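Example 3.2
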Amino acid sequence: MQVVCLCCRVPSSDIVMYVLDFPVVPSGASTRTDSSPASPRRDPSSRTLLHGHQHAEAGLNTCPFNVARLKSAIYKEPKASISWFLSSFVLILSTSPTTSYAEDIMASSALQRLVRFVPRSSPSKILIGQPADKDIDVGAALRKGQEVAVNVWSGSSVLSPGSSTGTTETIDRVLSPLAQNEIGTIRCVGLNYRKHAAECGLDPPAIPVIFMKPATTIVDPWPARGTIPKLSQVDESGDYEAELAVVIGKTAKNVSEAEALDYVLGYTAANDVSSRTQQLNQSQWSFSKSFDGACPLGPTLVLKSLITDPTKLHMRGLKNGEVYQESGTDDLIFSVPKIISWLSQGTTLPPGTVIVTGTPAGVGMGRTPKDALRHGDEFAVEILPHIGTLTNIFEDEKSGFMTKILGNMSAHVTVPQTMKALRLVEFHKNYTLLHDVPVPKPKPDEVLIRVAAAGFCHTDLMVYHGITQVSLPFIGSHEPAGTIVGLGSDVPEIWHIGDRVGVTNFMDPCQGCNGCKWAMQSLGSLDPRFCDNRTMCGIIGIGGLGILGIQFAKARGYRVMAIDNHEVGLKLASGVPSHLQPDLILKLDDPETIQKISDFTDGIGLKATIVCTSDDAANDWAAQRLQPRGVLVAAGFPEHGLKFDPMNLILREIFVKGTVHGSMDETREMMEFVVQHGIRSHLTLLTMEEAEDIAAKSEAHAFTGRPVVKIGMH
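Structure, written as tokens:
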């Protein structure tokens, strides 16, 4: 028997009918008994309660209008036919052939988009539901840190989602629509877009080109990471493929093209990650596309009732925010019905079968020059309307030991009670190493990070000398890097236990004061340090900061000279990658240095200088090397303040700028620049026991590059 509730459209093969004061009577029987009222009650609560029902097999209230459990009878006679009218609500029981739950949902109009997710309220649960906002791009919203509310359904799978529970949850982490154990196989179609075939220099195939991927290739949307296998790392052959995926909802075999869409449950997005070298080395493609994590899938499953024509979708593939692939699905060589019909000939396609339908033009292999997926790349598959954006950040495959450690970190984090710390007790004195400092508990809006390493910079020297107004005792830490081991209750869901993070500010950013607001301005709203015509610049002070300045300036196309007064700095400047070498390396107190700068600039002077040292005389010396209206950026902190020749500044209109701030946009741009141009930092690693006199050694230029302290906990 099948029951359909006319308000929530929930089907079921069994029904528990609830009534308060009167029985439900089979059609044809007497409609009056001694216990039944002459007519139904008309108060709102009576109407609502009468309408309540539940699935007998689930044993749960499922209609959102049901507010109580009611006494009744269970009707399972296959020939029973009952109609009961009450106000505008109608409950219909009718006989029908037994169908699968996925088929029932395919016929239901209550559901249109399904998500499988972990709720914020209970991280150990996996739920199924429909986004409360019918238009929201779930993947894009989560990637931006926005909250996504979901109306929860009672089932445990998109193949049997149950019915609405009437509750709403917020997504903590979205999962692939289908778990690996729900997918028998992933059937894939190659070379199925006309423009993609053209970019490969191939004629459109006469029949679908089929290969298969195992279920172990499935990976969740962001924040889950995609994997670049070691085979692809060796020759940079990892590639992306934005694709439309079809999920089969009922068993299909030998189906015709005309009836093929009847077997579809819904549609989602997929990324058919490939290893091109392995693909081209052999005629069978499966090996090159079957590595673990080679099929990101999600974020929503859109039922066919919402996507009635799969040729009317628009798809884009975006790498690091740039559009690399873009096409309508009307460019498919073989349509979705044709693919389903072809795959089902002599072959059973069970519910849960995923069919990946091919990729449009723009893959890395087809670009000039060729492109590849590399460690740190973000790739997004956007299919609109309705499906949304599937995003993953890709990481190189690690050793089995590290993969296991990182994979299990969130479930096995142990935070000790105490930790080591280097504490500044008195200005101008060495740090004191302590062994039993209590580990703080994160406040609601705080993240607890197990620090692996922390740098020491000129701003730490400011604290050491008492220039900044910090209270003592003070535990120093500059731009630490580590792993999240604790989260406050109000921390956005973009952060997770086990995330590896870096911190770019050693003070607490409030994001509300003028300083924080200024630091968060976009690059376009600020007077930049360098304009396009500032082609010649000098970096004075080649330490941990100056060595990065050289490389960034060269990567931007500037002519650069590196200047230092210590052999360790001069040696450091000559050790950068060859494509980022400075044009000149000069010693500040060399008698010929000033003339060399004049020759380098044709007597005009430098357009800009960046002073990365706290030497008292360095800023004035650098200002005198500038051309009229040149810019000096003071990044160091001289103990006795900045001192300049006033005639030089006034008569030649020299601009002096000081900054230690950077916006999030600038930080992202910087990190992308590091990866793109191979910029390297230079470090001297110290244990905590070796770092008590780090300030004095830093002032004595005892370190090559930036000193970094390896942090340890009990």
